[in-house]
Amino acid sequence: MKQVDIFVAFFRVGMLGYGGGPSSIPLVYKEVVDKYKWMDSDEFGDIVAIGNALPGPIATKLAGYIGYRVGGIVGMLNALVASTVPTIIMMIFLLNALNAYKDESWVKGMAAAVMPVVAVMLAVLTWDYVKKSWESTLGWGWTLLFVVASLILMEFANIHPAIIIFALLLGALLKKDSRSGDQGKKEKHST
Amino acid sequence: MNIWISLFLGFFLANVLGYGGGPASIPLMYEEIVNHHHWLTNKEFSNMLALGNALPGPIATKIAAYVGYDVYGWLGFSIALFATVFPSAFALIFLLKIIQRHRQSLVVKGMTLFIQPVIAAMMFILTWQMMKESTLSIGIVQSLVIAFISFLALEKWKIHPAFLITASFAYGGLILPHL
């Protein structure tokens, strides 16, 4: 029964959340705290705070953790599948249908007309991230410096973003505090 | 075999470096998908992103699963999805088990802070690329007018992105070919 609840809860979150993971946090709250009472709102707040501090999509981190808390490893898999797979199937189906007609002029028109819309959505996201770091303790000076510096490094020096992010993470690690720096944040070796 | 590894590494990297939820990983995934591995063209990526935004659910997993499927069928689908979802979900479970009570770890907080500007810069580059490609295909006037209307729709009239994307698909499918 519990697994059915987990599935239904995260299926609803996946199907009702528009605009990527972060916009579905309130939906998760509604299911997990209000409806099924798997945890109180303080605990939920903690999980979101720590989840946000880790990299990766937030919706699946929440689903994975809450599924695990409520129903063990099976619950985790269950919640992850429920929140992602239904919309993915829709996506694959629609894109493949479009690809079948990709040489038709109307499909080309659709692809072309949506591009500026995508550009605007990305511009809005750009602004969100600038604002987020602007309003943090970094302030506008450092934010601007970091944005411009990473722009130059990526566009003109052709440095892979991973290198810049690693360097900044390293800087943050060394600068902030030195106590207990080994909190599961170092398993990022890859060649 | 090689493709398994590149799919796994590509999506693992893009998501483990994206701080700030799924959308933060979009430019990182673009880097892997379009620039590095050439799995999709710029235009295909934009199409996918538009459709992904028009559908509900987390965006990073939709992109990963679609590209994985496109590149290597259902196996590719599973690998890309696994690489996107599991490392960060496990990290959260692990971390929460260790620091039951420490709510605000300074180290972790400081880290995310430093990453935001880089994500912003990457988003900006991606925006620029989409706009450039768009002006090449439908001209600068069309591109700017559509962009301007989209901006008003999203930010001023607060129209749901799914409607906006559907509307632009309709415009492109029905009107654009006859201009």
Automatic annotation (TrEMBL), chain A:
Q: What is its main location?
A: membrane
In the record, the note on similarity to other proteins reads:
Belongs to the chromate ion transporter (CHR) (TC 2.A.51) family.
> What does the UniProt entry say about where the protein is found?
Cell membrane
Q: What Pfam families is this protein classified in? A: Chromate_transp
Domain of life assignment: Bacteria
Single GO molecular function: chromate transmembrane transporter activity
One GO cellular component term of this record is: plasma membrane
Could you identify this protein by its name?
Answer: Chromate transporter
* Ranges that cross the membrane: 73-98, 110-130, 142-170
What species was this sequence derived from? Bacillus methanolicus PB1
Recorded topology in the membrane: Multi-pass membrane protein
From TrEMBL, chain B:
Q: Which InterPro entries match?
A: CHR_Transporter, Chromate_transpt
Ordered alphabetically, the record's keywords are: Cell membrane, Membrane, Transmembrane, Transmembrane helix
What membrane topology does the UniProt entry give?
Answer: Multi-pass membrane protein
Q: Which Pfam families match?
A: Chromate_transp
Q: Which GO terms describe its cellular component?
A: plasma membrane
Instruction: Give TM segment ranges.
Output: 71-94, 106-128, 134-154, 161-178
Compartments, record wording: Cell membrane
User: Do the record's keywords include Acetylation?
Assistant: no
* Top-rank taxon, per record: Bacteria
Q: Does the keyword Amino-acid biosynthesis apply?
A: no
One MF term in GO for this entry?
chromate transmembrane transporter activity
Family of this protein: Belongs to the chromate ion transporter (CHR) (TC 2.A.51) family.
| Name of the protein described by the UniProt record | Chromate transporter
Instruction: Record the organism.
Output: Bacillus methanolicus PB1
